TrEMBL record:
Lineage: Bacteria, Bacillati, Actinomycetota, Actinomycetes, Micrococcales
Similarity field: Belongs to the NnrE/AIBP family. In the N-terminal section; belongs to the NnrE/AIBP family.
Cofactor: binding details: Binds 1 potassium ion per subunit.
InterPro entries attached to this UniProt entry: Carbohydrate_kinase_pred_CS (IPR017953), CARKD (IPR000631), Nnr (IPR030677), Ribokinase-like (IPR029056), YjeF_N_dom (IPR004443), YjeF_N_dom_sf (IPR036652)
A Pfam family assignment: Carb_kinase
Described purpose of this protein according to its UniProt entry: Bifunctional enzyme that catalyzes the epimerization of the S- and R-forms of NAD(P)HX and the dehydration of the S-form of NAD(P)HX at the expense of ADP, which is converted to AMP. This allows the repair of both epimers of NAD(P)HX, a damaged form of NAD(P)H that is a result of enzymatic or heat-dependent hydration.
Assembly and oligomerization: Homotetramer.
A molecular function (GO) term: NAD(P)HX epimerase activity
Catalytic reaction(s) noted: (6S)-NADHX + ADP = AMP + phosphate + NADH + H(+); (6R)-NADHX = (6S)-NADHX; (6S)-NADPHX + ADP = AMP + phosphate + NADPH + H(+); (6R)-NADPHX = (6S)-NADPHX
Gene name of the record: nnrD
Name of the protein this chain belongs to: Bifunctional NAD(P)H-hydrate repair enzyme
Organism: Ornithinimicrobium cryptoxanthini
Highest taxon above the source species: Bacteria
C-alpha cells in the first residue's frame, strides 16, 4: 500500500527527527538523494546541461545543494527567484563555482540569459516550491514554468511547484514534471486526482524520517490483494461466500446487465441473482449461464447499471421499484448509474455510491437544492465534492475517473485513490463491469471503502491484462477479472 501524508504530519515527523540529528542533516540527505536520481536520469538520456530553478524556501535549499553535487559531472546553471534563498545551499553552489542567474520575484517576463539557460537545458530541476508552496504560480515562477522547453526532462523536487501539496485545489499555473523525487514519504499531491497529472513518475527516497501513524490517502497495490481479497475456505459454500443481487439493464440497455453480472461472476461471487426484464435476462443467461434469474435471498445488492430511471416503460418502472426495495432493505448496496437518482439520505446498511463526475454533479445538485453543479467543477475539485456527497448521504462514495477516488463518510478514515487503469478503459460499459466486481466484494463482506479501492485496482489491472498496450472492450475486462485475481493472489 502506498500511503500519503498531509503536510502538517510530514512536518511533525521531520521535526522529531531533526531534533535528534545535526542541523541540516535532513536537507543534505534529501539533496544527495536528489542529485543521485538526477545524475542517473541525465546519464540515461545522455544529457549534459541542467538548469536548476530555485525558490525562496527549503525546497530551493535542496535544489541548491543538489546543484553543487551535479556540477561535478554536468554543466549546471542555477536560476534563482528573488533575493532570499537558502544560505547554506547558496554557499555550496558558490563554492562549487556554479553560475547563477537571478530573476525578480514579481517579473513574469524573463531576461534573455534566463530564457537561453532554459532553452539550452536537457534537464530542468524544479526547486521553486515544496510543501510550503501555495497553489498556483505567479510572477517569475509562472514565467519560468511556462518557458521550460518541451524537450527538457523535468524533475521536480518533492513536488511540482504550483501544485497544491494537499492535492485538493485544481491545478492552476504549475510546473509539469516528468518525474518527482520526494523525500521520506508520498504526500497527497502525488496521488490525488486533482494534482497527480503534474507529478509524472514518483520516486520516493529515504531520508530517515519514519511514516506518521495516520495517512491522509492510501493507494492499494498488487501486494494488498492477498490481504484483502475474500478467498474461500474449505467450509465455505456458495451462500456463505456471498450471494449478490443485481438490478441492472432494461429493454433499452440490456448490455449493462450482461456486463455487471459477468463481472460479478468472474470476481467469484458465490451466486448472482439477476433481476430484470425477460429480454435482458435471456442475454444475461447466454453470457453467464451460472447466473440465476429472479428474486431470492441475497447478501448484497448492485442496483442501477443500465436502468434509465427517467423512462416510464413498464420494465423500467419495475426495475426502479426493485432498486427502491433494495435501498429500503437492511442489506449492503452498491448504487450505480440510474439508481443514483433514487438516493436521498443515509441508510443503516453499508452503502457504496459509484458515480462518474457527471453523475456526482447531478446528485449533488439534487441533494443541495438551489445549487447547480457541473461536471467540470467536480473534475477540478474532486476530493471536496466527493466528500460533500459522502457527508450528505452517509455513504461511501467512489468517484470514477482516470484516478478513482473512494471517500468514506467517516472522516477519520484515509481517502483511497487508485490510478491503475490504462486510458483505454475510458470506454462504454467499463462502469457496469466495476459495479458487478465491487458488488461481489461487498456481498463477501468487505466494507465499502476496501471493496471500492480493491475493485478499482483489479478493474484497472484486468484492463491491462486483457490487451496490454491497446484498446480494450468492457466485456474483455470483465472476462479478465478471474485470471487477474488469480495472478495477484499468487506470490511473486
Ligand atoms: N522540513 C524538513 O525537514 C525537510 C524539508 N525539505 C524540503 O523543504 C521543503 C519545504 O520547505 P519550506 O517549508 O521552506 O517551503 P517551500 O515550499 O520551499 O517554500 C516556502 C516559501 O515559498 C514562498 N511561497 C509559497 N507559495 C508561493 C507561491 N505560490 N509563489 C511564490 N512564493 C511562494 C513562501 O514565502 P511567502 O510568499 O509565504 O512569504 C516561503 O518562503 C520540502 O518540500 C522539501 O523540499 C527537505 O530538505 C527534507 C527535510
Ligand atoms: K518543487
Amino acid at each position: 500500500m502506498i500511503r500519503a501524508f498531509g503536510v502538517a504530519d510530514v512536518r511533525a515527523a521531520e521535526a522529531q527527527v531533526m531534533a535528534e540529528v545535526e542541523p541540516g542533516t535532513l536537507m543534505r540527505r534529501a539533496a544527495d538523494a536528489l542529485a543521485v536520481v538526477v545524475l542517473a536520469r541525465a546519464r540515461e538520456q545522455a544529457a549534459r546541461s541542467v538548469a536548476v530553478l530555485v525558490g525562496p524556501g527549503d525546497n530551493g535549499g535542496d535544489a541548491l545543494y543538489a546543484a553543487a553535487h551535479l556540477a561535478e559531472h554536468l554543466s549546471v546553471v542555477v536560476v534563482q527567484v528573488g533575493t532570499a534563498v537558502h544560505e547554506g545551499g547558496l554557499r555550496a553552489v558558490t563554492d562549487a563555482g556554479v553560475p547563477r542567474l537571478r530573476v525578480a520575484r514579481t517579473r513574469r517576463a524573463l531576461t534573455q540569459p534566463v530564457r537561453q539557460a532554459l532553452e539550452d537545458a536537457d534537464v530542468v530541476v524544479d526547486g521553486l516550491l515544496g510543501i510550503g508552496g501555495r497553489p498556483g504560480l505567479t510572477g517569475a515562477m509562472a514565467g519560468l514554468a511556462d518557458s521550460i522547453p518541451a524537450s527538457a526532462l523535468v524533475i521536480a523536487v518533492d513536488l511540482p511547484s504550483g501544485a497544491d501539496p494537499e492535492g485538493i485545489a485544481a491545478l492552476g499555473r504549475t510546473v509539469r514534471a516528468d518525474e518527482t523525487v520526494t523525500f521520506g514519504m508520498a504526500k497527497p499531491v502525488h496521488v490525488l486526482p486533482a494534482t497527480r497529472s503534474a507529478v509524472g513518475r514518483l520516486t520516493t527516497v529515504d531520508i530517515g524520517v519514519p511514516e506518521p501513524e495516520h495517512a491522509a490517502v492510501e493507494q492499494l497495490t498488487r501486494a494488498d490483494v492477498a490481504h484483502l481479497w475474500p478467498v474461500p475456505g474449505p467450509s465455505d459454500d456458495k451462500y456463505s461466500r456471498g450471494v449478490l443481487g443485481v438490478v441492472a439493464g432494461s429493454s433499452r440497455y440490456p448490455g449493462a446487465a450482461v456486463l455487471a453480472v459477468t463481472a460479478a461472476i468472474e470476481a467469484g461471487a458465490g451466486m448472482v441473482r439477476y433481476i430484470g426484464p425477460d429480454a435482458a435476462a435471456q442475454q444475461v443467461l447466454v453470457a453467464s449461464p451460472e447466473s440465476v434469474p429472479g428474486q431470492g435471498q441475497v447478501q448484497a445488492w448492485v442496483i442501477g447499471p443500465g436502468v434509465p430511471t427517467d423512462e416510464t416503460t413498464l420494465d423500467v418502472r419495475r426495475q426502479v421499484e426493485a432498486c427502491r426495495q433494495a435501498l429500503a432493505s437492511d442489506l449492503p448496496c452498491v448504487v450505480d448509474a440510474g439508481a443514483l437518482d433514487l438516493v436521498d439520505g443515509p441508510r443503516e446498511a453499508p452503502t457504496l455510491l459509484t458515480p462518474h463526475a457527471g453523475e456526482l454533479a447531478r446528485l449533488l445538485s439534487r441533494l443541495e437544492p438551489g445549487r447547480v453543479y457541473h461536471r467540470s467543477q467536480i473534475a477540478a475539485a474532486p476530493v471536496e465534492h466527493t466528500r460533500r456527497v459522502a457527508e450528505l448521504t452517509g455513504a461511501t462514495v467512489l468517484l470514477k475517473g482516470a484516478t478513482t477516488l473512494v471517500v468514506s463518510p467517516d472522516t477519520d478514515r484515509p481517502l483511497r485513490c487508485q490510478s491503475d487503469a490504462p486510458a483505454w478503459l475510458a470506454t462504454a460499459g467499463a462502469g457496469d463491469v466495476l459495479a458487478g466486481l465491487v458488488g461481489t466484494l461487498v456481498a463477501a463482506g468487505l466494507d465499502p471503502l476496501d471493496a471500492g479501492a480493491l475493485a478499482a485496482l483489479i478493474h484497472g489491472r484486468a484492463a491491462r491484462r486483457a490487451n496490454p498496450g491497446g484498446p480494450v472492450r468492457a466485456l474483455r475486462v470483465a472476462q479478465a477479472i478471474a485470471e487477474t485475481v488469480a495472478s495477484d493472489l499468487t506470490p511473486g
